């Protein structure tokens, strides 16, 4: 029985990997519908038809996303337009290091050549030329992107219009021992907890983005608002997001300034902001209820990236949170809840932070 289950899960994973073009838009639509379901249900309680409220909320969300992209497009285009000069500056800055590494490689190659046997020219491997990607590949990628975008919007609209009752009926229809009422209760809890988590995380990320933009502006960094927006967006990805932002900001600082103290100050300022956000603000506002073991989060990000690339990384955290909420509301989910839960150090740190906040408000 265990072997059959292992084979079934392996086949399911292979299906998700091979058919990612079809599954990724649906998974992203489920995530967005889960996040936007709260305002849709709020409008529905005000006697607005669920289909109309779903359409209004989805249009407003897409308009906000499009407006943000339009605002940030000008500094982004300016930055990409100066990419050749940026690369040239980076090349000039790292030339001494590159020369040193080349000298080390030459010495290592000479040492290897002393003990290696001589080989004839006939034994040398033939060079295989790789053909550049043709227009068919580009057209295929464009077609997949358009189909995926349309599928994402349509599925999101249907999920929002149907609401939790539709998802409960569909889930209960495939699982014999579950009733629609129990599934609806689980969906409501998942929707509430995950929606609250993303609302809090969005506010935290907006604060981090504004703080990053202000600090970059104070240091005289070019396009400070672009780096603030990047910090806010990438912070949705645990660990990797802040690390990527730090790397990009450090590279821009190296290219833009020659003073080592200024470069270190810019990088150190962002490290300080990210540390305050990750070690104080996030545990204090989010709390232990939706905290997940860091090792499990890292493994989920790694497997998500291996399976589905960037969409898989974006979906890793909400999937873990959903599983944890379901485990907390299931009679057989104790072991899974303990496995996904934070370690004792995180728990103690959250207790101390909350005690400090309580004393500060008294």
Description of the molecule:
This protein is mainly α and about 350 residues long. Helix content is about 85%, strand content about 0%. The N and C termini lie far apart (about 60 Å).
Cα-based radius of gyration, to the nearest Å: 25 Å
Percent strand: under 5%
How many angstroms does the end-to-end distance come to? Answer: 58 Å
Poorly predicted segments: 120-124
Order of SSEs: HHHHHHHHHHHHH
Number of helices: 13
| Helix proportion range | over 70%
Number of extended strands = 0
Mean of residue pLDDT values: 77
* Secondary-structure-derived class: mainly alpha
Q: Major sheet: size, sense and barrel closure?
A: none
Give the overall form: globular
Short description:
The chain is mainly alpha-helical and 362 residues long. The chain is built from 13 helices and no strands. The radius of gyration is 25 Å and the shape is globular.
What is the fold's blueprint, element by element?
Blueprint: H1 2-18, H2 20-45, H3 50-81, H4 83-115, H5 135-174, H6 180-219, H7 224-234, H8 240-256, H9 260-286, H10 294-308, H11 310-328, H12 334-340, H13 344-361
Helix pairs in contact: 2-3, 2-5, 2-6, 2-11, 3-5, 5-6, 6-7, 6-9, 6-11, 7-8, 8-9, 10-11, 11-12
């Amino acid at each position: 029985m265990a072997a059959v289950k292992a084979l079934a899960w392996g086949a399911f994973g292979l299906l998700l990997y091979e058919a990612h073009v079809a599954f990724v838009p649906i998974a992203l639509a489920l995530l967005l519908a889960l996040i936007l379901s709260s305002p849709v249900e709020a409008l529905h309680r005000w006697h607005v038809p669920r289909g109309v409220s779903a359409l209004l909320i989805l249009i407003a969300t897409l308009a906000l996303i499009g407006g943000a992209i339009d605002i940030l497009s000008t500094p982004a285009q300016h930055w990409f337009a100066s990419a050749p000069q940026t690369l040239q500056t980076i090349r000039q800055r790292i030339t001494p290091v590159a020369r040193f590494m080349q000298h080390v490689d030459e010495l290592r190659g000479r040492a290897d050549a002393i003990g290696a046997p001589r080989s004839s020219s006939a034994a040398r491997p033939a060079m295989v030329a790789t053909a550049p990607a043709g227009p068919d590949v580009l057209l295929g990628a464009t077609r997949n992107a358009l189909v995926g975008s349309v599928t994402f919007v349509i599925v999101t609209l249907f999920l929002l219009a149907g609401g939790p009752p539709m998802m409960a009926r569909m889930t209960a229809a495939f699982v014999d021992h579950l009733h629609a009422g129990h599934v609806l209760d689980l969906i409501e809890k998942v929707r509430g907890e995950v929606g609250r988590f993303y609302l809090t995380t969005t506010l935290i990320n907006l604060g981090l983005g504004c703080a990053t933009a202000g600090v970059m502006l104070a240091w005289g960094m070019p396009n400070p608002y672009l780096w603030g927006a990047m910090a806010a967006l990438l912070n949705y990805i645990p660990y990797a997001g802040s690390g990527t932002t730090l790397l990009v900001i450090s590279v821009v600082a190296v290219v833009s300034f020659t003073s080592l103290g200024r470069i270190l100050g810019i990088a150190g300022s962002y490290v300080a902001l990210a540390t305050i956000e990750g070690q104080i603000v996030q545990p204090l506002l989010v709390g232990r209820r939706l905290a997940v073991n860091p090792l499990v989060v890292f493994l989920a990000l790694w497997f998500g990236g291996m399976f589905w690339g960037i969409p898989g990384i974006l979906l890793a955290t909400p999937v873990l949170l959903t599983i944890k909420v379901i485990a907390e509301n299931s009679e057989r989910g104790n072991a899974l809840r303990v496995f996904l839960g934070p370690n004792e150090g995180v728990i103690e740190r959250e207790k101390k932070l909350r005690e400090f906040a309580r004393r500060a408000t008294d």
